[in-house]
Design a protein that fits this description.
With about 290 residues, the chain is of the alpha+beta class. It contains eleven helices and 14 strands.
């Protein structure tokens, strides 16, 4: 690791000014689980590192006036996993965080870092997209909001422009009779990246006989997290029969755009999309509501 300048600003404006001043060689530091490793092994060569941990508000979990939730970008995976507020209102996120990495990693890694790293296998992205989350971005031009579905541009590339920071994730108010699940296929029992990830969120009707709304989002099978509306449409407004579940799983697999790499073949990933989508739907139908 070569020499770099280190800054620990106490305000968001100061952090943005530092990032603008130092240009493309400046990197924000959140949990550091990705940045430090990449710098140590030469995959990144930072000229300046801007530590965000002293900036107030970036690690807050706070209810919004509309009934939604504001999740600060520096909230750790461990905080998501143990938050009673998240566990009660957005159990899908707590369940997902508990499956990520080791205890040590969860205590360091942040939700913002997981998203901004923009790895196709990032676990937090599919559940948050399925919950219709928004990204709050602040930069030299002020604040703007982007649907998280549009935040990712490709591996390692996001909607963030020069000098901008992801400061929070906004979640809409929980919808009644809604439950979700995130399933991922890994080779080891823990501390491994997803070969395939599938998040499914269903909003049931009053009798819980059919879905009024459905969200299916895939991870690790395309350059960015992939929402598959073709599969969702099969599930809405009709009984969730086995044939419909199988058809939704088949369409999800067809929509996937996986590649061959050192972790898996494209063929195997596509097959696992179908398997995990079917399992997720069966899980949501067979389990009673979380709230």
């Amino acid at each position: 690791m070569r020499f770099f300048e280190y800054y620990a600003p106490k305000t968001l404006d100061e952090a943005i000014q530092l990032l603008v001043h130092h240009g493309e060689g400046a990197y924000p530091l959140a949990g550091g689980t990705d940045l430090v490793t990449k710098a140590r092994y030469g995959h990144l060569r930072p000229r300046a590192i801007v530590n965000l941990k002293r900036i107030p508000g970036l690690n807050d979990i706070a209810p919004e006036e509309d009934g939604g939730l504001r999740l600060g970008a520096l909230v750790t995976l461990a905080e998501i996993a143990r938050s009673s507020l998240i566990g009660e209102r957005y159990p899908l996120l707590a369940q997902t965080a508990k499956k990520m990495g080791s205890v040590l990693i969860r205590n360091l890694a942040t939700v913002g870092g997981n998203l901004c790293n923009a790895a196709p296998s990032a676990d937090m992205a599919p559940p948050l997209i399925a919950l219709d989350a928004e990204a709050v971005i602040v930069g030299p031009g002020g604040e703007r909001r982007v649907r998280l579905e549009k935040f990712f541009h490709g591996p390692g590339h996001t909607e963030l422009r020069h000098g901008e920071l992801l400061t929070a994730i906004l979640l809409p108010p929980p919808r009644p009779r809604t439950r979700g699940v995130y399933l991922k296929h890994i080779y080891r029992q823990a501390m491994d990246i997803a070969i395939v990830g599938v998040a499914v969120v269903l909003q049931f009707d009053q009798r819980e006989a059919m879905a009024e709304d459905a969200r299916i989002v895939l991870g690790a099978v395309a350059p960015t997290p992939l929402r598959v509306s073709e599969a969702e449409s099969v599930l809405i407004g009709a009984p969730l029969s086995e044939d419909r579940r199988l058809e939704a799983a088949r369409r999800a697999a067809q929509a996937a755009r996986p590649i061959d790499d050192t972790y898996s073949s494209a063929w195997y990933r596509r097959e696992m999309v179908q398997v995990l989508t079917r399992r997720a739907l069966e899980h949501l139908i067979s389990h009673s509501p979380e709230r």
